Amino acid sequence: QVQLQESGPGLVKPSGTLSLTCAVSGGPISSGFWWSWVRQPPGKGLEWIGEAYHSGGTNYNPSLKSRVTVSVDKSKNQFSLELSSVTAADTAVYYCARNKGRIFDYWGQGAPVTVSS
Amino acid sequence: EIVMTQSPATLSVSPGERVTLSCRASQSVNSNLAWYQQKPGQAPRLLIYGVFTRATGIPDRFSGSGSGTEFALTISSLQSEDFAIYYCQQYNNWPPYSFGQGTKLEIK
User: Fold this and answer.
1) Which of A110, B44, B45, B82 has the most crowded Cβ, counting Cβ within 10 A?
2) How far is A44 from chain B (nearest CA, A)?
3) Stretch A1-5: mean pLDDT
4) Among A111, A112, A113, which Cα is nearest to A6's?
5) What is chain B's alpha carbon radius of gyration, rounded to the nearest angstrom?
6) What confidence category does residue A92 fall into, taking pLDDT thresholds of 50, 70 and 90?
7) pLDDT for res B83
8) What tens digit of pLDDT does each residue of B14-60 get?
9) What would the DSSP string read from start to end of A21-80?
10) Is residue B78 very low, low, confident or very high in pLDDT (cuts 50, 70, 90)?
11) Nearest CA distance, B5 vs chain A (angstrom)
């Protein structure tokens, strides 16, 4: 059974960089899937942020592309999100998820992140 | 970017009723349409993909239909555990994958 678990700071200062990690268990991260980040602002819907493949390929939401990096660390069986120049609008619950055929079949429990000074 | 529009935003229904939720795409997404269920404080859960195919463990009271730009999720007989928010997602044109804004099912 695949499990995903997000970790990282719950509070980030404005103009800083949000950094989260998603630990994958129950299978190797290099097993042929893409790995995504999705966020949900308080009381709002879901927004896909970006995805990465174990060999280094990435795709990003054009609305966030200039600020986002998603990467895979095969040695630790985890993947990461970095979002730079954050503002209050980036306050959200951040989910990591596995892409299987471009659908999200496994999700982490979510990591709440607040941007505030 | 393909915009997904769900209607209605909120639906008040009674347990045991049949309900249909709608999802419209701003352009054709062929059959590349999925549905997710989200309960308060939980991550979304995959219900249906490829318009019709139920994910593992999803009961058969959930069914999907549609093609092109118009899609529906039907729950044949609402159970108490079905009261949640439902999102559709297109994966035909990406990036980005795009979600609808959600339909909240609440108890009447």
Assistant:
1) B44
2) 8
3) 96
4) A111
5) 13
6) very high
7) 95
8) 999 999 999 999 999 999 999 999 999 999 999 999 999 999 999 99
9) EEEEESS-TTSS-EEEEEEE-TTS--EEEEEE-TTS-EEE-TTTGGGEEEEEEGGGTEEE
10) very high
11) 12
> Which residues are paired to A83 by β-bridges?
A18, A68
Q: What residue of B is the nearest CA neighbor of A60?
A: B95
Do A105 and B55 make contact, defined as CB atoms within 8 angstroms? yes
3-class secondary-structure state, position B84: coil
Q: ω before A9 within 30° of 0 (cis)?
A: no
CB contact, 8 Å: A107 with chain B? yes
Among residues B81, B105, B77, B104, which one has the least CA distance to residue B17?
A: B77
Per-residue pLDDT band for B74 (boundaries 50, 70, 90) equals very high
Measuring CA to CA, which residue among B66, B75, B57 is closest to residue B11?
B75
Q: In the prediction, which pLDDT does A82 show?
A: 98
Token look-up 């490829």 returns: B50
CB of A95 within 8 A of CB of A6? yes
d(CA B19, CA B75): 5
